[in-house]
Amino acid sequence: MIHHLEIYVKDLKRTRLFYERLFALLDYELYQEWEKGFSYRKHETYLVFVQVEKAYESAGYHRKQIGLNHLAFGVTTPHDVDCIRQALSGFVDELYADAYPHAGGQDVYTYFFEDPDRIKLEVVALES
């Protein structure tokens, strides 16, 4: 089990607004907050978001470089995936919309989109 993940972000305020909305849909709760960061948790696992230092800000992020490709969040049913997609419509940049809901393969019901720093996120149904 993963205990926590820490992600450095370009704009903490924008990131917080984004994840507040997403995590409300996924039943995560605010866990910690301080001047340069915040975290949300579900059960024992939590995600930490920290404002990147100005000196490192320009490097940016791209999921096809070495490092994190994406984060996937499990929900119970395909209906849950559809509801989250609908709730985030117009708020996020959806990825692979032409292949929805099977962009991850014909046997997987999933929704892909990006956060404000272009980190790819996925919501996947655990039941079919």
Shape: globular
| CATH class value of the largest domain | Alpha Beta
Count of domains: 2
The SS-based structural class is alpha/beta
Residue windows where pLDDT falls under 50 for at least 5 positions: none
Number of strands: 8
Spatial order of the strands forming the largest sheet: 1-4-3-2
Order of helix and strand elements from N to C terminus: EHEEEHEHEEE
- CATH superfamily descriptor of the largest domain: 2,3-Dihydroxybiphenyl 1,2-Dioxygenase, domain 1
Distance between the termini: 23 Å
For the largest beta-sheet, the strand count, sense and barrel status come to: 4 strands, mixed
CATH-assigned fold name of the largest domain: 2,3-Dihydroxybiphenyl 1,2-Dioxygenase, domain 1
- Radius of gyration from the CA trace? 15 Å
Short description:
The protein has 128 residues and is α/β, with parallel strands linked by helices.
List the helices and strands and how they pair.
Elements: E1 4-9, H1 12-25, E2 29-34, E3 37-42, E4 45-51, H2 54-57, E5 70-75, H3 78-88, E6 93-95, E7 110-114, E8 120-125
